[in-house]
Amino acid sequence: MSDKYNFIVVGHGAAGLAATLAYAELAASDPHPGRIAILDRGPREQRGGATRWTGAFLRIDPEGNLDPNWVDFMTEVSGGLSDREYCRKLEAETPTTIKFLRDHGVKLLFEEFPLAHTFDNGVAGITPPGRPEGGGVAIVEALSTALEQYQNVDFLYETEAVRLTTSDDGQVNGVVVRNSEGLLRTLSAPSVVLASGGFQGNPEMLTRYLGDRACDLPQIAPGTQGNRGDGLRMALELGADTAGQFDMIHAEPSDTRSQAADSVIYTFTTGIFVNEQGQRFYDEGAETWDNSFEKIGYEIWKNQNQKAYWIADAKTLAIPNIEHGWLSDLAPERADTLEELAEKLGLDFESVRKTLEEFNAAVTDDAFDWRRLDSKHTEGITPPKSNWAVPLDEAPYIGFPLTGVICFTFGGLRTDTDSRVVTPSGVPIPGLYAAGELTGAFYHAYPVATSVLRCLTFGRLAAQHAFAVRDASAFAESIQSLR
Predict the structure, then answer these.
(1) Which of 31, 305, 341, 466 sits 20 to 30 Å CA-CA off 79?
(2) How many domains are there within the chain?
(3) Do 356 and 473 lie in a common domain?
(4) Which of 353, 380, 405 delimits the end of a domain?
(5) 3-state DSSP call for residue 272?
(6) How many helices (H) and strands (E) are present in the chain, helices listed first?
């Protein structure tokens, strides 16, 4: 196995796979395509990192276009801190990225989601997002299988990146790696792509940026444990700039009973949340589920001692396809009486009874419509419920015990629209690219169903730029040889 490559990719998730495959396809027509390496710190059977475990929802229409409201929404929720040029690039490149997926055999589904969300031009409606049939693992296996057809691609499993190497003038020219035996090896290449995810798997970094009790954040899936912040650390050592909010995370409310990955509950807007004292603590109807489930997950971790309980009744069960919003492999707890449900959830019945009586009495007579923001609200209680407030008084009662889990971190490297890592002055570091969750983009909130999409898109763009630089360098060398 060679130590000399034309292109090295650190990370085997959506961003790394898109970069590696796009480069391999570009190089295929060259009589001397050069060698390519893709690194994965895990074994082959677990390849794919966090992408392997995600539902990989995509904020697109069936034609492959990004939600037209997304760029402005990013500006709004970030308080103007998001990189608008970067966002516009994602919008422009999304159709090509979706074609890239489909060309490699990834089938996309557009299943109706049971509750209102804001994927429809910013207006609460039920236009569904897309998702790959089989979830993120379908992307991992489709792109990995396509890559395996190229004889010039080396898959380096159980290999960790340790540090980047540079020439005397600062050009990145390789990466030092450690194999499963703990031995170091230097791989050289004129272009290196960092696609190793965020730092959600690193308790020390989480504590440094998030503060107290970061160690209490469970991982949403096994694949995120390998996201140790290596790419961030290596690039910062070279003077790279940062972007995104380092003290914020994408958290989600997850079923505590389940051992399965991604056991998230999305259908909470038609019920209520209570804490371990049986008291409400959040306006469940302030926003559509897609704009609030992250805030709920964060609130449960930050202020509710990692314990919360969602309670609903027969009116929620009557909503068509409501079970599509329960990603847990376990059905909700179910009971004919509130007292029985409280017992199953481990809650004090009297506290829950008092909370529900107060809530039910505060509900207005407005019409209930789960398909849109219906303004059916409460009056005279704190916290209020702004939409979808229906009395919880009709058996059967259902509930989930929940905790906040970490999905990914917001802070990361700053890149340009070609995925080049830049310094604080905006100057690209020659030979260094980054894509995916390793790169910072989000502030205050994550407009959902765009993480995998931006991983794929900017991984692909990194390959395009690196190959164009290679062609330009080869042309310059050929001209020089003629002189």
Answers:
(1) 305
(2) 2
(3) no
(4) 405
(5) strand
(6) 11, 20
In a domain, 2, yes or no: no
Instruction: Tell me, yes or no, whether 435 lies in a domain.
Output: yes
What pLDDT digit, counting tens, does each position of 122-163 carry? 555 546 789 999 999 999 999 999 999 999 999 999 999 999
Among candidate residues 359, 379, 405, the one where a domain is terminated: 405
pLDDT value for 124:
54
- What's the gap between Cα 404 and its chain centre? 15
Count of other CB atoms within 10 angstroms of residue 350: 11
Same domain, 379 and 416: no
> In the predicted model, what is the mean pLDDT of residues 90-112?
96
Q: Are both 415 and 391 inside the same structural domain?
A: no
Do 381 and 452 lie in a common domain?
A: no
Burial class (CB in 10 A: 0-12, 13-18, 19+), 149: exposed
pLDDT digit string, tens, across residues 388-444: 999 999 999 999 999 999 999 999 999 999 999 999 999 999 999 999 999 999 999
Residue 186 and residue 89 in one domain:
yes
Judge whether residue 300 has pLDDT over 80. yes
DSSP 262: T
**Are 399 and 452 in a shared domain?**
no
Contacts of 75 by beta carbon, 8 Å cutoff, 6+ apart: 82, 84, 87
Per-residue pLDDT, 472: 66
In a domain, 221, yes or no: yes
Q: Residue 138 carries which side chain, given as an amino acid letter?
A: A
483 token code pair? 């002189």
pLDDT digits (tens, 9 = 90+) for 212-241: 999 999 999 888 889 999 999 999 999 999
What is the distance, to the nearest Å, from the Cα of residue 298 to the centroid of all Cα atoms in its chain?
15
Contact yes or no for 320/114 (Cβ under 8 A): yes
CA distance 386 to 388: 7
pLDDT of 326 reads 93
Q: What is the dihedral of CA 355, 358, 364, 369, to 10 degrees?
A: 10
CA–CA distance, 90 with 450 (Å, rounded to integer): 9
